Amino acid sequence: MLDSIQQQVLQLLPARKKTGQNGWTSFNAVCCIHNGETADTRGRGGIKTNAGQISYHCFNCGYTASFIPGRHLSFKFRKLLSWLGADDLTVRRLVIEAVRLKELVAPEELEQVPEEQIQYEARPLPEGSVSFDQWTTYFAVQGNDYLVPDGVVRAVHYVNHRKIDFQKYKFYLTDYEAYNLHRRIIIPYYYKNQIVGYTARAIVDGVKPKYWSSHPADFVFNLDMQKPDWRFVIVCEGPFDAMSIDGVSVSGSEVSDIQVEQIDRLQREVIVVPDSDRAGRKLVDRAIEAGWTVSFPVWQESCKDINDAVVRYGKLFVLKSILAARETSKLKIELKKKKLYA
Ligand SMILES: [Zn+2]
After folding, report:
1. 82 C-alpha vs ligand 1 centroid, how far in Å?
2. Where are the alpha helices (DSSP H) in 13-87?
3. DSSP annotation string for 171-211
């Protein structure tokens, strides 16, 4: 039973292949042309299986992918399956099968093959950053409410206006003039309870750029806030969208493989809500590739993004409308994409 996926994958291999004494079956690699390399003609792709575990390695372009019973089918592995010729339905079926296998594998067994962890170094916030809490406490203690600087008042109003929950999300301000940061609010980027970057959003008209950021590549914003018992995760473009609905943000419409992998590791339904500007198309295409659900909620033609909708209609309505309008069929997603970005 544990090797059911292994058997199906082996059937996808090309007819021309040979198995060496080291246990690797080699054949012309299927990955290279998808990674900007010329096609392999020298049998440099290899696959090895052992009790349901599957490893693929390409000695031409360097692509690797693996599957371990008990784990989810990673994005890299799913891409490999489609390059081997598996159609979308087959890939989806294997994804579900991988979830079922989970119940057959004891947690202790999985611990012996630790998942590769993504690590980020701590990064400092801009010099002189002070949290909203610190500012407000300071002025409350002084009893000098009328001395609260305009910048602070402006920032609090701004966050309030965007309907972000101050109890849940933390913001910073600084009066570091050189970067005009007193005209920005700083959203810290947490990863495993440590600040690994930030984005500083302009809150005064004409301050450019709108977002001034420093964070690791491939960062997924708000992963820390995802609770283990949640059934789905909403993927948004911007951090304000993510905060207003407790989803995650990929900082724009491009999603890297590592970002896909981090979101998939949450092991729940992934619902993408693209912005309604043209760049949102790219996010939809990526969602299709990753096998994710895409939602086209009713407010999409009048609101530019999730935060805009939350400001107008409230979080509960927006959440319900996202769930109600989700599409899993590739064909329907394509149709709605055409309609939205016509
Ligand atoms: Zn390759």
Report:
1. 14
2. 75-83
3. -EE---GGGTGGGEEEEEEEETTEEEEEEEEE-STT-SSSE
- Closest to 244 in 3D by CA, of 342, 338, 319, 156: 319
The pLDDT, as a whole number, for residue 78 is 93
Residue 275 identity: D
Closest alpha carbon to 256 in 83, 119, 76, 116 = 76
Task: Collect residues with CB below 5 Å from ion ligand 1.
Answer: 29, 31-32, 58, 60-61, 63
Q: What does the alpha-carbon distance between residue 201 and residue 183 come to, in Å, rounded to a whole number? A: 8
Residue 181 has pLDDT above 80, yes or no: no
Give the mean model confidence (pLDDT) for residues 269-287: 92
Does pLDDT of 76 surpass 60? Answer: yes
- Report yes or no: 67 and 98 within 8 Å, Cβ to Cβ: yes
Pairing of strands 232-236, 269-272: parallel
Gyration radius of the chain over CA positions? 23
pLDDT at site 66: 93
Beta bridge partners of 233: 270
Taking the C-alpha atoms of residue 268 and residue 26, their distance in angstroms, rounded to an integer, is: 34
Residue 199 · residue 211 · CB < 8 Å: yes
Q: How far is the CA of 35 from the centre of ligand 1 (A)?
A: 7
**Phi/psi at 191 (nearest 5 deg)?**
-140, 120
Instruction: Let me know: does 291 contact 81? Beta carbons within 8 Å.
Output: no
Q: What is the mean pLDDT of residues 104-123?
A: 81
What SS3 state is found at 186?
strand
Q: Strands across the sheet with 232-236, in order? A: 248-249, 232-236, 269-272, 293-295, 326-327
Through-space distance between the first and last CA atoms of the chain, rounded to whole angstroms: 47
What's the gap in Å between 37 CA and the centre of ligand 1? Answer: 7
